[in-house]
Write a structure and sequence with these properties.
Blueprint: E1 2-5, E2 10-13, H1 16-19, H2 30-38, E3 52-57, E4 63-67, E5 72-75, E6 79-81, H3 88-92, E7 99-111, E8 123-126, E9 130-136, E10 141-149, H4 160-170, H5 176-183, E11 191-197, E12 209-210, E13 213-215, H6 230-251, H7 256-285, H8 290-304, H9 307-310
Parallel strand pairs: 1-8, 6-13
Antiparallel strand pairs: 1-2, 3-4, 4-5, 7-10, 7-11, 8-9, 9-10, 12-13
Helix pairs in contact: 6-7
């Protein structure tokens, strides 16, 4: 990893293995990851373009699902709500809307058809109320982001040319490689999103399961991307939930509802502190005060922060399923 200031000055660089020998960092394009998982399922197991509009229960206790295209489904077994930050399932279960945290992010994938020129490392650039980063995710693609403070989420913009211009204007005088990556970003990969999260409080927040309905990933615990753990936690949820359900089925005397409650109990100590920690890290990195930013760049990052102890959140032990 290399960390720079907005004027291109290197503040610090290191290898994750030197900080903590147990660490291994890999950047993966999300589309490729999802396609890899999907390819392991039987043909036609996934029904695409099936956004959920409503969820409810019938008189006999079955879960009823209505899709935006009018299709109605009756789920006799388990419904897993993994439908993202604005989950209708989470809303039906009593969860509040995720809260805007005060900053937005542009994100995209720079494309180099003849091969991208960057080393396999994470690069960050810190400014005042503004930060950016980029990392190669394949021989031809480089993921990048620009995160900026904003008092409100602002209007939704879908025109890719406007999004590209706005992101470039924010970092116009920053290191040129960042501008080059943004310039090489195809229109269909650039997005602008307000960052949100939902803090879950023990004994206060609704349960993650209701009967045979359960939440995983962003639908349950949306968090800001400052620790890079949102999608990772969703995968962990899936592993733990699958194991709990398998144990209940294989034992012959366990209930589905009991397995879902056990899943929730095991995941609480993991996702509750991570959500808060991600929020606090983002708030600290988005400082605007010039004096505070100077102390961060000249003292905190190069001399005080030790990355090793801060990476423990990436460790997740998983037994073979």
């Amino acid at each position: 990893m290399v960390i720079k200031s907005e004027d291109g000055r290197e503040l610090r660089s290191f290898r994750f293995k030197d900080e903590d020998d147990s660490q291994e960092v890999r950047a993966v394009e999300r589309r490729i990851l999802l396609e890899t998982f999907a390819d392991q399922l039987p043909p036609e197991a996934i029904r695409f373009s099936s956004k959920l509009a409503k969820i409810g229960r019938s008189e006999n206790g079955e879960t009823l699902l209505e899709l935006v295209d009018g299709t109605r489904l009756s789920a006799k077994q388990i419904v897993i709500g993994c439908d993202g930050v604005r989950s209708p399932v989470a809303k039906w279960m009593g969860f509040s809307e995720p809260k805007y945290v005060g900053h937005c992010a542009f994100r995209g994938l720079g494309f180099y058809p003849d091969g991208q020129p960057y080393e396999p490392r994470v690069s960050y650039v810190y400014g005042k109320g503004l930060r950016a980063g980029y990392v190669p995710v394949s021989p031809t693609k480089v993921y990048w982001f620009v995160c900026f403070n904003s008092p409100s989420p602002g209007p939704k913009i879908t025109d890719p040319s406007i999004l590209k211009n706005q992101s470039q204007e924010l970092v116009r005088n920053w290191p040129s490689e960042l501008l080059n990556i943004i310039d090489r970003t195809p229109d269909d990969t650039i997005i602008r999103t307000p960052l949100v999260d939902r803090w879950l409080w023990p004994a206060v927040s609704p349960s993650a399961s209701s009967g045979s309905v359960v939440l995983v990933g962003d639908a349950w615990h949306p968090m800001t991307p400052n620790l890079g753990q949102g999608a990772c936690c969703a995968l962990e949820d899936a592993v733990v939930l699958a194991k709990k359900l398998a144990d209940a089925i294989n034992s012959g005397n366990g209930s589905v509802e009991g397995a879902l409650k056990s899943y929730e109990s095991e995941r609480w100590p993991r996702i509750f502190p991570l959500t808060i920690r991600a929020n606090l890290v983002g708030s600290l990195l988005q400082w605007e005060n010039p004096v505070v930013c100077s102390v961060r760049n000249n003292v905190v990052i190069p001399k005080l922060i030790r990355i090793g102890p801060m990476l423990e959140h990436t460790n997740f032990a998983c037994e073979r399923l």
